[in-house]
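Summary for the funding panel

The consortium committed to producing paired sequence-structure records for every protein in the target list. Below we show the first two records in order, beginning with the earlier of the two.
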Amino acid sequence: MSWGHGTLKFKEKEYRFKVDGLSVLDLGVASASAAGEVFNLEYVSDFAGTYSGGEAAAALAGGAGTATLKNQNDVKLKIKSKKQGVQLKLAPEGLKIKLVD
C-alpha cells in the first residue's frame, strides 16, 4: 500500500484528502489505517503539500509505526498506525497530501 485517503477535521468542518508516499512494510497486511494530529495549521490550504523530516526516519526505522513530519508551510503531522506492529515507511520523495473536492 503506497497511497490512500483521509479526512481532515478543521474548524468544525471536514476536508477530504489523498495521500501518496506512505507504505506498509509488514508481509500479509492487505490494508492498514493510520490516524494523526496536525500542528501549526492556520489555513486549511496549508495542509496540502509534501511532508518529510528527520524525525520520521528514526521513528519509522524503529518499527514503532509512528512518524512526525513537516511540510513546506511549517505544518506538522504526527501519524500513527492503528494496527499494533504495523511498520510504516515513508517514500524517499516524502508524503504527498492533496486536498480533494
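The next record, for a separate protein in the list, is shown here:
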Amino acid sequence: MAKLIINEQIILNNMKIKKNIFSVAKGLMFSPKQEVKNGVLLKLTGDFNRKKGATVHTIFCFYSIDILFVNKNGKVVDKTTLKPWTLKYTPREKCRFIIESYKNTFNSIPINSKINI
C-alpha cells in the first residue's frame, strides 16, 4: 500500500500498487467500490512505456474514475475523468505512472504538480 501526497496533503491513504503486466492491464476493471475509492498506482514498464505512455480505457469499470498521468520525475503531465465504458484515452505526454481513483478525487490537483508516493 502507498500514500499519494501533494503539498504535504494526503490525497489517497491506501493505494494499491500494481507492477506486473497483468495487474497493470487490469487497473480498476471489475474492482469493488472500496478499491476504487482507495485508488491504485500503476507502474508502467516495458511495452506500456511507449511514446505517449499507456492508453487507458474504462471497459468493465463500473464507476467514473479520475486518472493522473505522472512522469518519471513525479510531475503530473495530464489528468482526466472517464465515464464507465470509455474506449480509449491517451495522455498528452509520456508518463511512467498512472494513478486511478474515484471521480472527483483529483479535482484540486493541477497539471505540473509534483507528487510524492
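Regarding this second record: The helical segments are 21-26, 33-38. The chain is about 10% helix and 30% strand.
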